[in-house]
Amino acid sequence: MSSHHSCQNNQETCRAENFGSRPRGRPTTFTSRLRRTVRRLVADDPRLTSAGIRKHLSECYYFTETKLPTTRTIQNLLCKKLKLRARRPAQKPLLNEQQRKCRRTFCGKYRKWTVDNRKQVLFSDECTFQQFGAYVNWVRRPVYCRLLPKYTVSTMKHPASIMVWGCFSWHGRRRLFCAKGKNC
Does 157 lie in the same domain as 95? Predict the structure, then answer.
């Protein structure tokens, strides 16, 4: 019972002497210059890891070995202060300029369709599933920039795969079909 009262007394003493408003722990190394530098490095190369950023800071910037932030400090800066969490990049097919132009032309052709026109369309697609997925890096990017080319990984189809076809329309979906081949 006496320990409860002594804890209460210590808390009141701390409040009375204003100990609670003092900064605690080690001083922060998050200077505005560090924030700008790290943000610029990640903007230039979003695939940099925190260890890569630390190495780049030690080689190219004003940091000495004693003032160089740790990798954990850089991770905290990226995640908590700059809101640049590591995410898997979106996978987009590798398209050349002619393919992009054809896609823009197609979209422009059907841009002004009404709902009744769209009800008569059957959407179909095939997808290739691979037994072993492609190696995926991590990328640091802002929240709403997922499909910018800088934050994506180009993909190529692998020959050892299974192709599946499916379709849907306004009226519902159909079952999936496995393409004829040695794997089906």
Answer: yes
The answer to whether 35 and 73 have CB atoms below 8 angstroms apart is no
Q: Which two tokens stand for residue 81?
A: 């202060």
Mark whether 52 and 69 lie in a shared domain. Answer: yes
Q: Are residues 31 and 95 in the same domain?
A: no
The region that residue 32 occupies, defined by phi over 0 for left and psi between -120 and 50 for alpha, beta otherwise, is alpha
- Please give the sequence-ordered ranges of beta strands (E in DSSP) within 15-147, or none if there are none: 86-87, 90-93, 122-130, 139-140
Give percent above pLDDT 90 in the chain: 22
Contact 58, 68 (CB under 8 A): yes
Instruction: Give me the domain span that covers residue 131.
Output: 90-178
